[in-house]
Amino acid sequence: MPAKPHRTIRLKDYKPASHEIDSVDLDINLEPEKTRVTARLKMRPNPARETLADKLVLVGQGLELVEVKLSGRKLGAKDYAVTADSLTIKAVPEKPFTLEITTICNPQANKALTGLYRSRDMYCTQCEAEGFRRITYYLDRPDVLSIFTTRIEADAEAAPVLLSNGNLVESGKVGKTGRHYAIWHDPFKKPSYLFAMVAGKLAHIRDTFKTMSGRKVELRIYVEPGKEDRCGWAMDSLKRSMAWDERRWGREYDLDIFMIVAVSDFNMGAMENKGLNVFNDKLVLASPETATDGNFESIEAVIGHEYFHNWTGNRITCRDWFQLCLKEGLTVFRDQEFTADERSGTVERIAAVRGLRAAQFPEDAGPLAHPVRPSSYIEINNFYTATVYQKGAEVCRMLQTTLGLDGFRKGMDLYFERHDGEATTVEKFVACFEDACGVDLKQFMLWYSQAGTPELVCSLRYDTKSQTAELTVEQSLSPSPGQPKKKPYQIPLRMGLIGSNGQDIELQLEDGSEPRDGVIELTRAREKIRFKNVPSKPVASLLRGFSAPVNLTFDQSVEDLEFLMVHDSDLYNRWQAAQTYATRVIINSMKSAKATTQPGLELAMALRHTVSDESLEPAYRAQFMSLPSEPDLARQIRSNVDPAAIHEARDRVLKVVGQELAELLQQLYERNRAKGTYSPDAANAGKRSLRAAALSLLVRRGLPADITLAAKHFGEARNMTDQLTGLGLLADIAGPERTRALAAFEKQWSGDLLVMDKWFAVQAMSDLPDTAEQVEALLRHPLFSLHNPNKVRALIGSFAQANQLNFNRPDGKGYQLVVSSIIELDGFNPQVAARMLGAFRSWQTLEPGRRKLASKALETVRSHPGLSRDAYEIVTKMIGSEE
Ligand code: BES
Ligand code: ZN
């Protein structure tokens, strides 16, 4: 195999397109195996072009070319050239012209789920990032914006519903052929990746929304017939999203109709196509019986996310795919703010930070590390990453923290004003904040170009005589692939100093000024910040609300941590103090496994105060008592990680906490029983999560009574949240209760594929020793299919990404199992296969035995003949290139 069979695309090579496309008329004639597409493109040379526009190169993949016409004239074979992924028209006039291209594609055979494909009986499309080229030859790049008119024709019985972007302008029968058509027109210019088309037997629910300027918008959610009664929450979430975007950002919806379609085979979560969002059905369908509180919450967040893209992504899009964070990071930030406003701000912040640390920190510390705006890629689908999304969101949040809410809003307003209708860049985005607020963000830009998580090392000195407290902060930045040396960042450090009475001391800097909202802007590799008029030795609360995506090292005593757990006015940092404390206890207990004292006794005492504080929200208290996960602990250990040792130590400590707090936990369990009918709102969900957290700690004791209680929780459940809590706990306990519960669940839900995903996942996440064998057997379960990405994520994804213990089994069985599924999957769905490979991203931190086995597994993938470009890029970066 050649050293590098795939081309690397680089940001620095960006060139404007040779042509503009004024309008696109698509004619899509649907047939399962032979769909005929005619595209009529009105084109002209691009005034911004840097090359000649005397020929035209369009991209296309998997297309059968039928005919090309240039300004009405049919071209002969010598007038154009076709390769596996392009169509070149050898001579085009340097003035406006029309090009008419007819091609045929095969939706039925499309198992990659990008371009035009079939999900069950439905036809649907997924064009981001580069799927449109599988529908027709085109300038399939985000900086080519055009007006789309789409005519869809299909068998009226097989596909009674025909949808595309924009407004419906015409529909009717096609003579007596039994076929019918619909014509949709989207008045907004858009890049091809936002194109969508759906056709099939679909039912829908409808509603309306009145915008702030008084326009009435028709809202529709389309689903498989029979599922209409599970769309209510999605519709409710949509209306609240629309209202929130108006309230918080002054942004109103712009078409007369907004549609969402739920499909069951979908590579991602959901897609923001203009006016026609396409969703993975698990992010639309919900009823109390079939969806957990967590599902309801994700539905709300993702409906919000895709809706918010209408302004951040669609109206203003990306010049090129390197700018992906411009829409994704910003839109994740917006959806997080939406959730924070709709629910509890602190609980949402904790969830976002947990997610960032679980997914992004390891990415940033490993072989796949890349900046929020990468500078090169082989396959763009591999760059829809935690870094682009979650760290990208943190970068927006830091801007908001640095500029203040009002300053940030001014910058956003300017961004919408300046760039509406454009495809733009990160520089242009940041310039809006500089101009709106009169600040210099040159140093801040480093957040977009440097990879790796900065380390902040802090220390605090107090001087009684002068009543000053001095904080020393050092930034250190380890090298990452391609970036050996780094410059210091601008970091907003939100902080407080707490007096012995538990109250915040007013922060006063040396020059007498007060930091706004307690935010100090760090800019140098090492700096000292002096606070005056500090009457007594304070306890510092640093990085409040996790004001920057950094690793903080601050030498705090156990007493200080206990103090913060009770007194910090910043609830996020109270939670953080508990996490830090618990991490210390668990890691210490690993080092001295034979210690005589029971590890976790003091931790239990320290947790008690906040967990039992009835003035705090139940959801928050549930988070407070959810101690660091196994990957959290592995991240702190950093090298020579032994997942089994971590698992044991964590188990030991949790058991002590469960025993020590048993009485309190039982009370919480009893007193937070939900009354009345199920409601998915944050307050009710919070109560259920507190009960679940209490039950889970109780069960840690392993007493027969606890197992009975878990079985009872499962058996008496009236909603999926409780049912799955019970099942999840029993899944870790070998015995008849487990067997019975799994069988009962399967029997109850075998007719519902979405619910069965939970059944697969729960078994894949079990810590029992034969889990790998169970997963292997489940791969052959009649309801399992590698062709359905949700199934792949439920079984293989849960095992590889949420079961550190068994995926990393010391005999390598976990790796082999995952790798052989990935290789099979890569044969038809490279995008999802490459994503699954991410499970190996931290393999170099493992202890030598496992490291060797993981490396061998990765080699098996790399040497597989016919490996996709997607998997190739990930696996070679993961192993480390030998160039
Ligand atoms: N634009 C993406 C969907 C997408 C990603 C399409 C990659 C093609 C390739 C969409 O807006 C998105 O970000 N979806 C997320 C969910 C979101 C809430 C973070 C997803 O699908 O996971
Ligand atoms: Zn998105």
Detail the topology: elements first, then pairings.
Elements: E1 9-10, E2 19-29, E3 35-45, E4 56-59, E5 64-70, E6 73-74, E7 80-83, E8 86-89, E9 97-105, E10 115-119, E11 122-126, E12 146-155, E13 161-164, E14 167-174, E15 179-190, E16 197-200, E17 203-210, E18 216-223, H1 232-249, E19 257-263, E20 270-271, E21 276-280, H2 293-308, E22 317-318, H3 324-342, H4 345-365, E23 376-377, H5 386-419, E24 423-424, H6 426-437, H7 446-449, E25 455-463, E26 468-476, E27 491-498, E28 504-505, E29 519-522, E30 526-531, E31 539-542, E32 551-554, H8 558-567, H9 571-591, H10 601-611, H11 618-624, H12 630-637, H13 643-660, H14 662-671, H15 682-699, H16 704-715, H17 720-730, H18 736-749, H19 753-764, H20 771-778, H21 789-802, H22 804-807, H23 813-826, H24 830-837, H25 848-862, H26 869-879
Parallel strand pairs: 2-12, 18-19, 19-21, 22-24, 25-32
Antiparallel strand pairs: 1-23, 2-3, 3-9, 4-8, 5-6, 5-9, 7-8, 10-11, 11-16, 12-15, 13-16, 14-15, 17-18, 20-21, 25-26, 26-30, 27-28, 27-29, 27-31
Helix pairs in contact: 1-2, 2-3, 3-4, 3-5, 4-5, 5-6, 8-9, 9-13, 10-13, 11-15, 12-13, 13-15, 14-15, 15-16, 15-17, 16-17, 18-19, 19-21, 23-24, 23-25, 24-26, 25-26
The structure holds ligand BES and zinc ion.
